Amino acid sequence: MxxxxxxxxxxxxxxxxxxxxxxxxxxxxxVEGLMFLLLESSKLMxxxxxxxxxxxxLGFPEKLQSLLLELYLTNxxxxxxxxxxxxxxxxxxxxxxxxxxxxxASRCLRHQPRPQILMKLHLKDSDETKTHLLQTDPVNLVHLxxxxxxxxxxxxxxxxxxxxxxxx
Length: 168
Known about the structure:
The chain has helices at residues 2-6, 10-20, 24-43, 48-57, 62-86, 138-155, 158-167; strands at 92-103, 114-125, 128-136.
């Protein structure tokens, strides 16, 4: 758990390697592997049965499997809290203000309307709000919505769902 909270400590690896009579890299890789197992299991909120199935396939002895299961069950909420604290907080949508402007004519071009859509997008990043001004014409806005709708339909396809499941 200290590895997850504070990161790697080479002195601890050296002390453990001397006591076990193995190389420092072996201890380091073993600890990193166990922490990866605990992090991924906590991230996916594996149940007790799923976690046992995962460690059985890794070939650990039965006594070690029960110790790992106990370690996982007692610390998974703390690991999730550490992961949540370390995660990147991206800006997210707060509000959108919009206005439709039309220039009906000019000195050069009489009877040539030029519509424009002005948008003020407010994004919240932690506690501060950032504002972005956007301007487009209706044709580009329709094209943008069509492309975004097509992307949304694509992500709902069975092929993309299968890929997303395998990535997690």
